[in-house]
Write a structure and sequence with these properties.
Shape: globular
Number of strands: 0
Radius of gyration: 17 Å
Number of helices: 9
Number of domains: 1
Strand content: under 5%
Distance between the termini: 56 Å
Length: 174
């Protein structure tokens, strides 16, 4: 039957389309992984994304501080993915809401117990992972690009965790 058959069967009897939402939302996270390093490498895009990395003290507001051009471009790039997957706007909305909640969580000025952070980061981006990404040190900032799921960074070699207790300086080099 395959995943598409299962999804169509669930749709035909009117059940909530949880499988479809989950399976079709994964590529959006992959797209975020591709866009993030591109922004760092291309000077024009970096100028827009730099607004997000400029905070010297990260908190939950950092998670929603993006330049409008970056938001517009990201939204525009989702359209071909939506079409290719045959995903619905509802499925995109579920992904976007989930991602935004996780983004607010991992930008929050909180520290989880090491065990909790280690367990959560098997699946979602945690505050410690994101702190590394917001480091002023380029070698650290060029890692952990994921916004929701962590496996894209693991699969593509951009995963980085620092030793516990290491202090990270946030911001952008002038």
């Amino acid at each position: 039957m395959g995943i598409d058959g299962w999804i169509r069967s669930a749709e035909s009897v009117g059940t909530p389309n949880v499988g479809s939402i989950n399976c079709r939302s994964y590529p959006f996270g992959f797209m975020d992984l591709l866009v993030a390093p591109t922004e760092s490498l291309l000077a024009l895009l970096w100028r827009f994304h730099q607004l997000h990395h400029a905070d010297q003290a990260m908190d939950v507001t950092t998670g929603s501080r993006f330049h409008m051009v970056e938001i517009g471009l990201s939204s525009f790039l989702r359209v071909p993915v939506l079409i290719a997957l045959g995903a619905t706007m509802g499925e995109l909305a579920v992904y976007e809401i989930s991602m935004f909640l996780v983004v607010l969580f991992h930008h929050a000025n909180i520290a989880l117990l090491e065990r909790a952070d280690r367990t959560l980061r098997l699946f979602i981006v945690t505050p410690m992972m994101n702190k590394v990404h917001h480091s002023i040190r380029r070698v650290e900032a060029d890692s952990n690009y994921g916004s929701l799921f962590t496996w894209w960074d693991r699969w593509f070699g951009s995963w980085k965790i620092l030793q516990a207790g290491r202090r990270i300086q946030f911001g952008v080099e002038e």
